[in-house]
Design goal:
15 helices, alpha/beta
């Protein structure tokens, strides 16, 4: 059975008696279990060496662990091969890599790039820059009143000029689960490729990239109980092979000479220089930890937290909940006549960590006529007591303004 006390005890940052904190900002980044923290230390203590170079036993050991991590991630998302897994610094770098390689090679003047206005800035700005470089057009899909993806508008705006569609699996402000399967099928019918931003989705449901049939799927380690500075770009192998390199340097080459350079096959050609070796190994450890908890137990626990928080928040007349969705452990809300930053600051002073602001989603805020929201986002280490403490702190904050 799901034992919240056992799980919470595995997170040192949440069990420090000197600095107690109710952490409700997991959509921004999750806290890390001790096994992941120990994994990073163990690498530097026993295995520290560069990978894919050198002839000593430490580099062989490091390379073996590094590439085993790639295999573990490929298995986690059911990629056809570990060669479809490219290490990045995170979701943002993965999206930029696609824009600067596949995009520069295959997007031309007059082509259309389709994105929704509920996307994170990381899934908007790289495509805007690509459009500026190439003369392509950005086609905006409007949101529905609850901040969701307008599928009817999407179908109407698809055309023979559509070359790329980029869509979040689950959005970061409201937790809206996008109709990615339908979007992928319809985009493929017009010959477009589809990029899925899985930064939030990878945490909330099993991902099978072969069944999903996305051309690219990107996510970050730090939202999946892993370290910062490491992420994954999955791409169908023929697409990866068709793409030019982005960064130049060691490892990503086959042969370098002043008469011309030839490049390694994917994924190596996208991994110039010394990679985040410890981060990759620790991400695999995080995935191993995460998978030991049955999915249905994780889902039921997070769902119960979200429902409980929704019930408690709904009892307060001054609170307006923005786009409550059952698919992800996120609730965004505003408080009448009180700025979101003021609420977050007062909660922080009472030991409750939440996110406030526009959440790197200016277009969505504009569409909903909001300057920002307060966002609660839950991790596997949270319990209903955390929510009770948050609501108590929120009540005190509101009282200060009355």
């Amino acid at each position: 059975m799901f034992d919240i006390r056992t799980i919470k005890s595995q997170f040192p940052s949440l069990t420090d008696p000197d600095e107690p904190v109710v952490y409700l900002d997991s959509a921004a980044t999750t806290q890390k279990p001790k096994t992941v923290i120990d994994c990073i230390g163990e690498y530097y203590l026993t295995t520290n060496a560069n990978v894919h170079r050198g002839s000593h036993h430490l580099t062989a050991k490091a390379t073996k662990s590094f590439e085993q991590a790639r295999k573990d991630i490929a298995q986690f998302i059911n990629a056809d091969s570990e060669n479809e897994i490219v290490w990045t610094r995170g979701t943002t770098e993965g999206l930029n890599l696609i824009a600067n390689t596949w995009g520069d090679a295959f997007i031309h003047s007059g082509d259309e790039i389709v994105i929704c206005e509920n996307e994170h800035h990381a899934n908007i700005v790289p495509w805007q820059l690509l459009a500026q470089r190439t003369g392509a057009r950005i086609i905006k899909i409007p949101v529905t009143p609850d901040g969701g993806f307008d599928l009817n508008s999407f179908e109407q705006k698809l055309s023979a000029n559509t070359k790329l569609v980029s869509i979040a699996h689950i959005t970061n402000v409201t937790g809206y689960r996008q109709p990615v399967e339908t979007v992928i099928k319809k985009a493929h019918l017009v010959g477009a490729i589809v990029v899925v931003d899985g930064a939030q989705g990878i945490v909330h449901e099993p991902v099978n990239v072969q069944t999903l049939d996305a051309d690219f799927y990107v996510f970050s380690g730090h939202k999946l109980y892993g370290p910062t500075g490491i992420g994954v770009l999955y791409g169908k192998y023929p697409l990866l092979q068709s793409m030019p390199p982005w960064h130049g340097g060691g490892k990503m080459v086959d042969k370098v000479s002043f008469s011309g350079t030839t490049f390694a096959d994917a994924p190596a050609k996208f991994e110039a220089g010394t990679p985040n070796i410890a981060g990759a190994i620790a991400l695999a450890e995080a995935v191993s930890w995460y998978q030991k908890i049955p999915y249905e137990q994780k889902r039921a626990h997070l769902r119960s937290l979200q429902e409980y928080a929704f019930q408690r928040l709904s009892q307060r007349d001054s609170v307006a909940i923005i786009g409550y969705q059952p698919e992800a452990s996120i609730i965004s809300f505003t408080v009448k006549n009180i700025h979101h930053q003021d609420i977050a600051t007062l909660l922080d002073q009472q030991g409750v960590a939440v996110r406030s602001g526009h959440h790197c989603a200016h277009p969505l805020m504009d569409a909903l006529s909001l300057s920002g929201t307060i966002r609660l986002s839950f991790g596997l280490y949270n319990d209903k007591n955390d929510i009770d403490k948050c609501i108590s702190a929120l009540d005190k904050a509101i009282e200060l303004f009355e």
